[in-house]
Amino acid sequence: SYEIDSPTNRRKAREILIAAQSLFKGLRLKKEHRDELFAKIQNSFQSLNKRQDEERADFDKECAINYEKIKPIVQNAITFAENSDDYRESRDTLIAAQNAIKDLKLKKNQRDELYADIRKIFNEINKNQSEEREGFEKESTDNYSKLTNKLNELFMEMNLMNEFGIIREKLISLQGEVKLLKLKKEHRNDLFKRIREAFALFDKIRKE
Questions:
Q1: Which residue of 24, 162, 187, 208 pairs with 144 in a disulfide if CB–CB is 3.0 to 4.6 A?
Q2: How wide is the angle at C-alpha 106 spanned by C-alphas 103 and 109, nearest 5°?
Q3: What is the DSSP letter of 74?
Q4: Could you tell me the CA-to-CA distances from 143 to 15, 135, 139, 147, 186 in Å, in that order?
Q5: pTM of the predicted model, to two decimals?
Q6: How many CA atoms, within 13 angstroms, populate the side-chain half-sphere of residue 176?
Q7: Phi, psi of 161 (to 5 degrees)
Q8: What is the tens place of the pLDDT at every residue in 73-123?
Q9: How many other C-beta atoms lie within 10 A of the C-beta of residue 162?
Q10: What's the rounded Cα separation, in Å, for the pair 10 and 49?
């Protein structure tokens, strides 16, 4: 018995039937024998077609059910990503939706549509994050330059002024600005290091 339930085996079965059909066409046969063989082959073709149609209908039905199930999951992930300020969590949510699609039986156009919707949001997240990063870089550089100038002025004042209370308050105020303003880690660390040096110099000058 030849199993023809899989697409590969059905294809092989068709090839065998076509070959058999070609074979008996070239043979001398009585009309009733030829008609009988031809009818058997046609019945086999019809059986194959019926199985294929049934399988296609089952596939379409399963895909439709899966699509209706996954569509709101994808939409919820997209809505979350569109409204979240946490880029990492947004990406994780979208990736989870992608993985859910991957495991389901879907038609190509359904799968492509869902992936395209997710990819669109990924692109928006990347664009927004890139713009924010550029804005942060500029703001950090501007803040670093401004605070560095203030610190340089304080170093000069320490060597020229005797108003130690005012200088100390300015150092404390500057330290607060370094904590609060947007700065890259290396900029913040450098400013804190120089402020510590300024306090050390301040104590030394005051004791002299």
A1: 187
A2: 130
A3: H
A4: 76, 12, 6, 6, 13
A5: 0.58
A6: 6
A7: -110, 155
A8: 999 999 999 999 899 999 999 999 999 999 899 999 999 999 999 999 999
A9: 9
A10: 9
